[in-house]
Amino acid sequence: MAGSTENGSGRRGNRWRLAVWGTAALLLVLPLLAMQFTEEVAWGLSDFALFGAMLFVACGTYELAARMTGNKAYRAAVGVALAAAFILVWMNLAVGLIGSEENPANLMYGGVLVVGILGAIIARFRPHGMALSLVGTALAQVLVVVIALIVGLAYNLGDTLMLTGFFVALWLTSARLFRKAAREQSPAGAAP
């Protein structure tokens, strides 16, 4: 391992750690604050518990990845992928991406996450394999919408395509960052 600031255990790493966990705490407090000013936000204890658990898993996973490497592109790629997964799950639980949150067709998005997770495991979290895994995840995201369109489940085509484009862009951004991390690991003069 390189010096402590490269692997995340030095001062720079502590600042990033504080920023990640501080942002998570702020996100958890925001709905509570919003509830003081509007009745449109009406969270119960279970909502806060679920959101807190999701934040804990996302931040904990990011912290583990950050401790594994000092490569900034790799860390950024993990952050983007985790953000995409977090937003996908939260939106799906809150309002649903295909119809309402109660539409069983939304369960197909679980398959998108399974593609990403299995791909990461198969790649053993190595950057080149992770890049391929995230491209596969983007393709799985598109496949869900294609299936929904064929079966006639996508009610608002414009919103569905816009959200799909948003998630595909996040998955491909993460893939590109993993590809960059893979090139940075390659010895000088070797083909990436």
How would you describe this protein?
By secondary structure, the protein is mostly helical. The protein folds into 2 domains: 1-70, no CATH class; 72-186. Helices cover 77% and strands 0% of the residues. The chain contains 7 helices and no strands. Helix 2 (11-37) runs antiparallel to helix 3 (45-68), helix 3 (45-68) packs antiparallel against helix 4 (72-94) and helix 6 packs antiparallel against helix 7 (157-185). The chain is flat, with a radius of gyration of 18 Å. Residues 1-9 have low confidence and may be disordered.
What are its keywords?
membrane, 7 helices, mainly alpha, transmembrane, DUF308 domain-containing protein, disordered N terminus, 192 residues, transmembrane helix, flat
Structural class: mainly alpha
The separation of the N and C termini measures 22 Å
Strand content: under 5%
Oligomerization status of the protein chains? single chain
Q: How helical, in percent, are the residues?
A: over 70%
Instruction: Characterize the largest beta sheet: strand count, sense, and whether it forms a barrel.
Output: none
Provide the succession of SSEs. HHHHHHH
Low-confidence segments, given as residue ranges, are 1-9
Organism: Archangium minus
Keywords: Membrane, Transmembrane, Transmembrane helix
Protein name: DUF308 domain-containing protein
